[in-house]
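Researcher: Checking consistency across runs. Here is tRNA-dihydrouridine(20/20a) synthase again:
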Amino acid sequence: MSPAKLNRRFCIAPMMDWSDRHCRVFWRQLTRDAVLYTEMVTTGALLHAEPARFLDFDPSEHPVALQLGGSNPADLARCAAMAEQWQYDEVNLNCGCPSDRVQNGSFGACLMGEAALVADGVKAMRDATSLPVTVKHRTGIDNLDSYEFLTDFVGTVAEAGCEVFIVHARKAWLSGLSPKQNREIPPLEYDKVYRLKKDFPQLEIIINGGIQELDAAEEHLQYVDGVMMGRSAYQNPSILCGVDQTFYDAKDNSEPFTALENFFPYVESQLKRGTRLNHMTRHILGLFNGRPGAKQFRRHLSQNAYKPGADLKVLQDAVNCLNKDRVLPLHSETLLEN
């Protein structure tokens, strides 16, 4: 997909330890069109380790963006060029994560206090790649939480050529709160994000934070260009079945059983490569929440998928907890490309 065709009306957030390549392939069975984001990958990891470990992904994941963590413009530029070589659709800079580990590396949310440095990094990345370069950030940090601070940050970075800003509508406390608390305790400030779009109409503004239902996501589109959903989509992935119809004018919704069947060839191919079953099935535990047999489905996978040698039968037996007549294609001849 060319950068010009990237449609961010609905995005699924980068989530550490959750939005890995297996999870993203699963999500793609639920929605063809949502823009997916990788877990944050640090520039140091890409430049000093085996890149394939962090950059490899399945072609079915497109459109997919690589999120980078870093602050050195030269390093960011090198990693952005790698993203293009690996055929990602977008490069996103993390300016929103408040964890101590990220702060110790001088990137993440603390970069909101260094707008000029972020601008230098954006310019360096834009010079190194033709991919869209975007920034994900908060509404503020610590006591730097005025609307003027937010507009100064966005304005400075936009002057460097960034045209897309993904705004988590909460400020971040850089000390005193855990990353989990930073997702829950600072109040949501949707009005600030709406106002940002009014004041910067030429920019693409994506809103993130506290969005749990598609109806709520759709309401935000009255004020901004796109929405990003995170943990609610992970914990209740069947929500994603309605994304294509709601946001991309598809004729029909997807369906959880069909999505799982479509994910099955990927699971089969990865098992043959030596991937552990639970590394994939951990992402599907919430797929049937609210349906008869869902608890038994989760329990069976949780108790068996981690065991050495766990295979396709474990997954089929879990499906039997939901529908004994539903038989997954255990010997698919059409495997996703790897």
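Researcher: Does this match what you'd expect to see?
Model: One thing to look at in this run: The beta strands are 10-12, 35-37, 41-42, 64-69, 90-95, 133-138, 164-168, 204-208, 226-229.
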